[in-house]
Design goal:
- The protein is α+β, with helices and mostly antiparallel strands and 364 residues long.
- It has 14 helices and 8 strands.
- Helix content is 40%, strand content 14%.
- Strands 1, 2, 3, 5, 6 and 8 form a 6-stranded antiparallel sheet that branches. Strands 4-7 form a two-stranded antiparallel sheet.
Length: 364
């Protein structure tokens, strides 16, 4: 960013950037972080927006910003007010380039951004494209897969706290060793992963035992990712998907690629692969045995633009968002249309003749 606001740059030179903010009501700390690593802040906020707009938002946005709670209302979490606040926030680059006096945030927006960056237990940093090559060397370097558009490193704040806190994950790594694996899921879930870690008890899939499912092969995880509409003002793009690169402790409870599954974890009514997981699968039943290390972001360029938002891009984004939100209703509508066509075909001689006549005209 060669066009940063000089006032913001001088401020950042006087203060060392850290996501653990000591002044929760100071707008300058937010601007400082945007000036130092715009894409990292953009990424955190985009994931939050995706979760807040999801139909599962009550379970995904936890903890909930205290400023937007209404204890007297039937619905304590005031998502309507929260979404209105999100809509008032401009592209983050604007706040780094424009003097504070000319780009003041509303009290709600200022509180939301400061709260979001302070409460996130992970420090997020942008990485160069070379970092992806290093990650591939630790897993499956021969896999032919599209390179991510962005790579972010995530580190737990207590792991960089100068050793002041005891880190059980570090102790487990020294005792059992660790490996790198990938986890693909819907974009709306990544805000919860950043804030709360992996919660295996919420997983719906248990074909090879209970736990969080990963793979040592990135191409396998790409099949489980789902592109979604993120924040419309994101510098990365409004339509994206994400894969988490995780460090997994090689604990005896963890099912590594090709290993036999523990008999106690098998559900004979749902297990399709017998007593052995696929060669690339990793199943982690204990949430303490897994940590996200990097986030790989893939942007859908057809529906996203890092520059100006054209009417075509906005239409594409709106259509995609509508389909994502009403997927079940659209499937049921399509099913009803098919049933109607079958009924007409079986009971209407005129309809059959019309269809056959049309087919004869199209296919001589």
């Amino acid at each position: 960013m060669g066009d940063k606001n000089p006032d913001t740059v001088q401020l950042c030179q006087r203060r060392q950037w850290n996501t653990s903010i000591s002044e929760p009501n100071s707008e300058s700390s937010f601007r400082c972080q945007v000036a130092v690593d715009l894409m990292a802040v953009d990424f955190i906020f985009s994931l939050f927006v995706t979760a807040a707009k999801s139909y599962r938002r009550n379970s995904l946005v936890r903890p909930f910003p205290t400023r937007f709670r209404n204890e007297d209302a039937d619905e304590i979490n005031d998502f309507e007010r929260l979404l209105k606040c999100i809509g008032s926030i401009r592209p983050l680059k604007y706040y780094a380039q424009t003097p504070v006096a000319d780009s003041a945030l509303s009290p709600d927006a200022e509180h939301l951004l400061e709260w979001l960056l302070k409460r996130c237990p992970l420090r997020v940093e942008s990485c160069s494209a070379m970092k992806y090559m290093e990650i591939q060397e630790q897993t499956s370097p021969n896999t032919s897969i599209v390179h991510p558009d962005y790579v972010f490193e995530v580190v737990r704040k207590n792991e960089i706290d100068n050793g002041k806190r005891t880190n059980s994950f570090e102790e487990l790594r020294e005792r059992y060793g660790s490996m790198i694996a990938y986890h693909g899921t819907a974009l709306e879930n990544f805000h919860s992963i950043l804030f709360n870690g992996f919660l295996s008890h919420l997983n719906k899939t248990a074909l090879f035992g209970s736990g969080t499912y990963l793979s040592s092969d990135l191409s396998v995880c790409m099949g489980f990712t789902r592109s979604a509409t993120a924040w419309e003002h994101s510098q990365m793009g409004s339509q994206m998907s994400c894969v988490a690169v995780c460090e997994v402790i090689k604990h005896p409870d963890v099912t590594l690629p090709g290993e036999r599954l523990p008999c106690a974890d098998l559900d004979q009514s749902t297990t399709l692969g017998g007593d052995k997981a696929p060669d690339t699968y990793v199943v982690v039943p204990n949430n303490d045995h897994i940590r996200p290390r990097y986030m790989l972001v893939y942007v859908d360029r057809k529906c996203s633009s890092t520059g100006s938002r054209t009417p075509g891009n906005r239409l594409c984004s709106s259509v995609t968002h509508f389909i994502a939100r009403h997927r079940f209703a659209l499937i049921m509508l399509g099913y009803m249309v098919v049933l109607c066509l079958i009924g007409l075909w079986q009971n209407s001689r005129y309809f059959r003749k019309s269809v056959l006549k049309y087919v004869a005209m199209v296919i001589p």
